[in-house]
Amino acid sequence: xxxxxxxxxxxxxxxxxxxxxxxxxxxxxxxxxxxxxxxxxxxxxxxxxxxxxxxxxxxxxxxxxxxxxxxxxxxxxxxxxxxxxxxxxxxxxxxxxxxxxxxxxxxxx
Length: 109
Hints:
By secondary structure, this protein is an all-alpha fold. Helices cover 86% and strands 0% of the residues. Helix 1 (2-21) packs antiparallel against helix 2 and helix 3 (34-47) runs antiparallel to helix 4 (50-67).
């Protein structure tokens, strides 16, 4: 467990540091499905439950477009005259709404 936490913390710390030097590269790295690849493999290795792993993967697939809702306020910030924290709060609100959409869609699969 400590190894998993250490690796995740290292990836987050590295991309956070890299964002100050090369924000476009840091953004690309963060957008990669590294978390998904690691979480799926580690979860399956730990629990050995194929059905749960497949449900986990489906949930991730549905969660990707929903998670993009967080960035919508940032995209529209100039047009709406929003500052960073306003965008952040609005993005969190959209994620909360998106969670319920995700839950509803996943229950049909």
